[in-house]
Amino acid sequence: MLNLPTAKPLHSYNKYWAECFGPAPYLPMSRAxxxxxxxxxxxxxxxxxxxxxxxxxxxxxxxxxLLEAQGFRVGIIAQPDWRxxxxxxxxxxxxxxxxxxxxxxxxxxxxxxxDRKPRSDDAYTPGGVGCKRPDxxxxxxxxxxxxxxxxxxxxxxxxxxxxxxxxxxDYWQDAVRxxxxxxxxxxxxxxxxxxxxLVEVAHRIAxxxxxxxxxxxxxxxxxxxxxxxxxxxxxxxxxxxxxxIDRMINPYLNPRxxxxxxxxxxxxxxxxxxxxxxxxxxxxxxxxxxIRLPSFEKVTADKVLYAHASRVLHMETxxxxxxxxxxxxxxxxxxxxxxxxxxxxxxxxxxxxxxxARMPHPAYKGEKIPAYEMIRFSVNIMRGCFGGCxxxxxxxxxxxxxxxxxxxxxxxxxxxxxDKVPGFTGVISDLGGPTANMYRLACKDPQIEAxxxxxxxxxxxxxxxxxxxxxxxxxxxxxxxxxxxxxxxxIGSGLRYDLAVTDPEYVKELVTHHVGGYxxxxxxxTENEPLSKMMKPGMGxxxxxxxxxxxxxxxxxxxxxxxxxxxxxxxxxxDEDMLNLALWLKKNNFRADQVQAFYPSPMATATAMYxxxxxxxxxxxxxxxxxxxxxDPGRRKLHKAFLRYHDSNNWPLLREALQRMGRADLIGDGPxxxxxxxxxxxxxxxxxxxxxxxxxxxxxxxxxxxxLTQHTGLPPRSQGVSSKKTAQPRSxxxxxxxx
Length: 739
Hints:
By secondary structure, the protein is an alpha/beta fold. Among the domains are: 10-191 and 195-222, no CATH class; 572-708, no CATH class. 31% of the residues lie in helices and 13% in strands. The strands form 8 sheets. It has an 11-stranded mixed beta sheet, sandwiched between helices. Strands 2-15 form a two-stranded antiparallel ribbon. Strand 6 (168-170) and strand 7 form a beta hairpin. Helix 18 (504-513) crosses helix 20. The longest helix is centred in the last third of the chain and has 18 residues, at 539-556. The chain is globular and about 75 Å long. The two termini are 25 Å apart. 49% of the residues are buried.
């Protein structure tokens, strides 16, 4: 157990009076469904950018069913027409509040590629069609909710809101934007896994509290005008010469009034502390200490301050020691309470025990929803990730404390799939989570875990305090395989191979029984400099895992292959680094089918590097380390071309680059060369991109012609799939993932 502040268990609340209606077959999406259930109104209405799938891998279902279990009547407005308020009035006026989320995936990442080109598809929409949600969906939906029912409290959450909770760099505008809380004009923002916070807030609103008076719930953000009395404020608004923050004095006060104002301020139990001095108690009360970040205006004008703010934010993410944060936007403050207390195993079981139909809502009339098709036979066994990869949104959103379900709960869900889901053939497609093999891994000492500020438990090496025992996971695999009617358990989640090699027995179990021909792992790069900016291990761990994988594959008498994924154009990557990666791919006879360049998601540490050219993994100042950033479209294209060195369409670009880099020795027709000297004619050569699907499948399944795919480290492309393939989503709350 973590040495954390106590939290009220989710299942200990007195249920709201509407529990008498009981659970609904599906949460209603129309007035006709409400009438059938005997409802005259909804207590809470969830607006989401995804199609409504009543499955625990979909945020609106997790949150909706949890609130239903608390006794509330919950309606769903899924993928509404945002051009008017009509769809937002379809279920009537909610009694308590609107809950708005963009869905399981950030709407901008959902709608645009890493090159800012519009996507034509949407895995979370019936038929996979695109354009069913607007850009910045949370903002559009919030505006329409306010137009429909101006006096109803508006609560926002989900991955889109969570990663935009402070001033953040927006890749699509190439500018710093306000906290989404201000732009959405919302009453409260929920970040991270919001079950605990949302249940508490819902009951307090139901009991008559005003939303504006609820300011003490962890995992929430809201607007304040000033720091309240009895709080210590730590000044972190500057990097070189931090100093005391003075309140702005009203220039229209006469001297007498000013004296009175000053005297009143001195009498207030309000403190501003310069963090570079000792003018403070030895130990400040953590629950009454707030860190002031540089203001929106300052981080917009000064990239060094932006990098500094990013560093401070990421240092305050451990729920065991994090303090509140505040950032001024104009004349108001955006206040962030400390992160939520992670759910216990009992609470995780409670959340996943809801009566999910495990199917899309009948309103879709059986039309296929690609994201659902990918996860319909998979089970989420945990949340969180302590890897801390800088390009990834999991740790920032779900936290680095693992939240695990019990084996009994997981096996029960496997049986539910077996008995209830149409089309089940006996194969479970995944028992996993953000990372396949972090189940029940945690710090050996709860006191150390609660006090730790390391952004990763496995970088630059595995922490000596981390328990890496995979026995509980191995036992789970074995128990699941023994269930009647279960023919095969596959592991589809990305594997953290540097952890796996610490337990060869786990690797043997995995390779012998749970690999469906290919196993996905993510070295991301071969060179130390980009790896250090990603916080990923070196290739030594990959080589060690590869040896174990091949050894146990031979012993099992199987033909199985590793599929490593790589990122192009990540901050800290030089052209020479990409060349060396291409040479490694050629040496190991890997051919990448589809690749993707680094995608700067809001609030990620790597995004701060991309925007500021500074490294927030170390102390930031005006003379600190400069990061080589690949923000020029030409260089981004070149880095992607190195990953697809075998594609003739890339050869002219690569020839020019190799000559410029003084590596013309790699141009030629011998086995030691990277690319040919001459460009083939169309008749003589057909690019791998133009192969038909049968040829591509043949290449994918033969040794020495292995196809790779690439992931972005962003939700929901969290399982190593490329931007052109359907992504496999993970279980998320009304907020949200990418390992």
